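Dear colleagues,

For the upcoming journal club I promised to circulate an example of a predicted protein-ligand complex. I picked one with pyridoxal-5'-phosphate because it came up in last month's discussion. The inputs are reproduced below in full, followed by the predicted structure.
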Amino acid sequence: MNYGRSILSEVTGYVPGEQPREGGVIKLNTNENPFPPSPRVEEALRELAIEGLRRYPDPVSAGLRRACAERYGYPSKDWVIAGNGMDELLAMAIRAFVDPGDDILTPYPTYTLYETLAMLHGARPVLLDLDDSFQLTESFFQTPARLCFLPRPNAPSGVCTPRAEVEKLCEIFDGVVVIDEAYADFAEDNCMDFPQRHENAIVMRSFSKSFSLAGIRLGTAVARPELIAELLKTKDSYNLNAVTQCLGLAAFTDYEHMQANADRVREGRQYLTESLRRLGFHVPPSQANFVLAEWNGSPSASILFQELKRRNILVRYFPVRRLKHALRISVGAPEENEAVVNALGELIG
Ligand SMILES: Cc1ncc(COP(=O)(O)O)c(C=O)c1O
């Protein structure tokens, strides 16, 4: 079957046939963290008992789920599920709560994987345009669907829907609301308390961004036990390998390290935002670890993307409505942020 879309290229920006670039590349295209994970991760990796790898891992990732429940203020691991990256949890939410032919509501523009996953499932993605400030419009609250994906902060704008609006959505919406908090650790506030009050709210987090662990593939979801039980039914038997469970737990016990890194990313975000605005880009206020640099001038954003690539600076360009005059730039280490600002300054003259 040809769905006309591919998870691989939607999420990673992978171009078939393109050789991976080696050495000297400034990689600001997939919102990874420029700073290393907690030293406890390295320690845990060193101490990992090889003998244990002979066995299958814990199929329900109990230790990790218990740690998350405790940290986020929930009574037990029954409120949490862990996935092979948040992407797996997004797919599980569709399998658990949506039948082929049902509607799935998302804002537009947003994380493109929602639409791709909906189509692969035979569901109908309903994309409602955000306003000029990348905020929800009233029609979003009035549109029925079985499932809604609402990223907060949103991607690729970095803009946050106010908490009160998410609360209103959970109250009005007659289906399951997935609040995608992949970038919440970089934001001013979050909705992790919503499952306490809203029986249709699922809050998802990722270890790929704030915990600097994109390579181990780990995400979590928090919701009422009835919803978690439904998600568990759709899970692969051993969805989280033993190494990921061990390293994820080690990182999670060093929350202070993650928060310190998030603070450094916020500093880089402020530098990027201010510098790009000074160059004439329009940059919506981002609460994530990336900024959207909107550019209507000459050369076009598409040319800027290509020219940056020629200089071994990788950013993300989406050749679609509303985004074709913009570049999404991940916050990197200070010298990487300076390099991309300097390069753009030269390119736009
Ligand atoms: C909005 C959003 N949600 C979820 C994810 C997926 O995170 P993970 O790496 O945990 O699968 C991403 C990754 O870029 C994202 O941008």
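Two points we might discuss: The longest strand covers residues 103-108. Residues 31, 85-87, 111, 151, 155, 180, 182, 206, 208, 214, 219 surround pyridoxal-5'-phosphate (CB under 6 Å).

See you all on Thursday,
B. R.
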